[in-house]
Amino acid sequence: MSIVEGAAGRAATLIGPKPPVLVKLAYSLGQSAQSGGFDAAIAFVFFYYAAVLGLSGALVGAALAVSLAFDAVVDPVIGSWSDNIKSRFGRRLPLMMLAAPLITVAVGLLFSPPKGLGQTGLFAWLTVMSIAARSFISLFNVPYIALGAEMASDYAERTSVVVYRAMAGIFSAVAINAVGFSVFFANGGLQRPDGYPGFGWTVAALLLVCMTLCCLGVRRYAAALPQPEQVAGAMWKRLPGEMVEIFANRSFRTLFISAVVVFVAIGVNASLNNHAHIFIWQLKSEQLQFIGYAYLFGILLGVMGAPALQNLMEKKNIVLIGFALLIGNWLVLQVLRLMGLYAPVGDEALMPLAINAFIAGIGVGFVSVAYPSMMADAADEHEHLFGRRREGLYFAGLGFAGKAATGLGVMVAGIALDLIQFPKDLGRIVGADLPADVQFRLVLIWGPAAALLSIVAMLIFTAYNITRARHDEITLALRLKQGGPPAL
Questions:
Q1: For the whole model, what pTM was predicted?
Q2: 26 Cβ partners below 8 Å, 6+ apart?
Q3: Among 365, 312, 380, which residue's Cα sits nearest to residue 158?
Q4: Structural domains of the chain sorted by starting position, each given as residue range(s) with its CATH number in brackets
């Protein structure tokens, strides 16, 4: 029997490290930086600056585009940096510990622009603080995600680590939404500027606690993980070659490009959520949290169900199902409204929107578990093909795809608001009516346009071809190369 033919049976005996439950729990708290700090808290920024503070949508988009360009440079540098660190804390933890207090300050200041700033001043403040928040979250998140890939090498155990991380991210997002809508933005407060600074600093403090507990909880396990030999030479000299190398792997290219496209769609849709919910469906600010909870509960079910589905099908198929559910969320209610067939408002709109968000959340849960696990599998394939571990750069690519493409989606959403002539002063008026033609164009961008982009991402993603059997072959080949157990 050849190595390839017997790989599936023998690879099961070559399972690598399996972190204890307490270590996985502590590790999972670090997801608050991304899910809580970036996805949940910063989701309020677009509405705050564009609708409440009155900054031009194009300028909001431009500010976030500048931070996007900066992120394009920062993420791979951090990935390469963390791949090449050797310390008594391991090669990932030093950057995470450095980033935690910096994230805290940047997030707090992002929600606290000085009073009296005009358009230029607001644009400058948003640009600088967005760059700071994105960069410091990258400084934590890139080594954090790479550490998760190193904590386990088994096909299934790797998914377990991702599940812990995803569930912690959901709970942190729920907590931040609850604090926002129930404390700072209750009774129409989303359209008032005075609640945002307190919200920002409260979120910053919560993130600091979670990131600190994460670093303390994993420090011994992270320090005990293997640390490959450092690569000689300056980073600026070796990084271009490393970038060329990772893009030479078809699996990475497929995951990266499809992630960029779908995150642009998510950025467009998410940036306009508050505009659509308040000005189209006419919900009250305090009602928005229930849509968020339905969405997050859907994600929780998706995250919990993904490992069970993985026993029945390939990770690739789980992602495709997730994409389909997400696309449905952006088409059903929106198309019905555009056609004039179903247009509930106020209390009548809350339940259908919550159900829609719940279904989308299940899809996102599937993707959020399977996708990072697939990226870790692709990193194994990279070592098999090129002889070097590149988890840092691989997850820098995934992180960049998420943050940068979402930023691009925000930029598109900002420009779109100006193109559809959304009234700049309307955001501060509780109960204001949006002209019907502007409503139509807003719904079109918020739903069907985002769905079309996701369909493109779905088609790109179909080229991914690492199956369970292929990963078993890779695992066995790597263990044999490293002097692991002989074939049975």
A1: 0.69
A2: 213, 214, 216, 217, 218
A3: 380
A4: 8-226+236-481 (1.20.1250.20)
